[in-house]
Amino acid sequence: MKNFRWWPAIGVVAAVVALGGCGGGGSNSSSNASLRIANATLTHASLDLLINGVSASTATTTDTVGNYASPSSGSVTLQLNDTGAATALTTTVPTLTGGNHYTLLAYESGGAVKTAILNEDNAVPPAGTAQLRVYNAALDAGRIDVYITAPTVDLATVSTPTATFATTTANASTALLTYSPGTYRVRITAAGNKADLRADIPSVVVAGQQIATVVLTPAAGGALINGSTVIQQGAYAAARNSNTRVRLAAAVSGSATVAASASGGTVIDAGSVAPAFGFGYVLVPATSTLTVAVNGTPVTAPTTALKPGADATLLVYGDPGSATAKLLDDDNRLPSDATTTKLRLINGVTGSTGTLTLTANSAPIGTGIAGGLASGYVSVIGSTNAMILKLSSSSSSAVTTDSSNVLSPSAVYTILAGGPIGAPQLLIR
User: How far is CA 249 from CA 39, 166, 218, 285, 318, in A?
Assistant: First the structure.
């Protein structure tokens, strides 16, 4: 994934972020505020801003910031549309202070556009210093640690994170931290696991008396993170995640050994005896090509390209001598309701032209799922007791039942049906 650079943070404060530094948005009367859009969305190439129903800023393209508009102070209605469209993507009604500057951050989670208001009127730092903070809107990624270092520091030598975002219920920021002007690197990992790199921003540059906010937003798969840097009343720089996380799902019959790797020599799985999920997600450049082998014999790799910022399952299924490899998109965003568990089914069984249906505690998870495909994700009520999973086939009267797994609330699981249709196995990861 991309490299993100940052500075140490002292605490976590709540959602509306004040961006500090120098730079100006132009003169503005005290009865009006100054507000601009930062387009950090995944799929909306250009955005228009309407203030109280009137066009105020047009065509802010992805990874850029628009010019300041001048809304009145007080409560205002801010609406974002795709450029030229009449339908609102999102609407928010903040209270703005006359004379103050704001950035309206637009980003996406689960296909929905969301916004956050960043306040840009912190006091200018003393001469010879700069200030930095991290704003976390990447709640999909769960609990994360932030490391802000010099660019060449080996993360393995850093014992303590600069900051930890321990909650996934609301956007939050670190406190403003004072640094010498210069270039910094910001790396984001899963909380307590430096090996699970979620973002790496290699170059965040701050000049003397500037205040920079590094903004974290969800990437396509939920676990990886995109970043951007907002200089108070100044420049905006995007840092998109250029990597993909890939895992192997070996579902071929005959207890065959399946291996996979990415171009450049990254091993995704050195060899797992099917049916099995492999060794977990491995981070690879999204430009990588994949290599797959079953019992040492090459298998045609999927033609589907990897997607930057995404999670993917490399499914290998069928008879060992004629196996098929397929790339499936994963959605590892946590359930919106922490009392639920998010599940889906992958059909990797061999020897059936029919479909599979799966229930969890009698709730339908996947219905009529053909071979080599995955169901959508379904949220069911979580439990600290083992769930009863029942798998049935349209081409067989046999029913496979598994009641040995506790599937925790506020978690995401994929259930892989693999092996021969006569005796399929359910594997959960």
Answer: 36, 31, 25, 20, 12
